[in-house]
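In this section we walk through a basic example: taking a raw amino acid sequence and producing a predicted 3D structure, encoded as discrete structure tokens. The instruction is simple. Fold the sequence below.
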Amino acid sequence: MKSACQLLLILSILLFPLIGEGNEGKCHKTLSDLDSLLYSQYCSNQTKTKSPEVKYDPSLFHKASKEGTIRVIVRLKEDFLPEGLLKDDTEISAQRKSIKDKQEYLLNKLKGNNISKVKRFSYIPYLAFYTDTEGLRALITDDRVHSLKEDRLSRPALSQSIPI
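The resulting token sequence is shown next.
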């Protein structure tokens, strides 16, 4: 992701003189459109080359069987851009609706499993909830799921916490 942002910055700097003089009002819009186009192209290429298998830590099954349920964060396979890179409110609304629809579809598909305390995210294609080993099995076999991670607290890093 970091390299994609660096690439976009370099391309913007290199292409800025090519946009032409006398188009001052259009330059920002054109660069913004170019950045969005390049970034979306980068994201779609990355999605196509990734393995269709769900990425997960096998130890999730051991912990779920030991504790009964485990809280997981599920990343859905969904092409999305940060809302700041989208052109207008229509694109933002369409992306949010697409994310919501995919979340609802997955939750409906998992209805027979032990799923509880669901957290839906409006702006990113993620869900968080408690599930058991059967729910984990259903998730890793679903072609709409990109990855699973345990939802747990991490130790704070000094750069992310307040100074003591």
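Looking at the output, two observations stand out. The chain is about 50% helix and 15% strand. The longest helix spans residues 24-49. In the next section we compare this with other chains.
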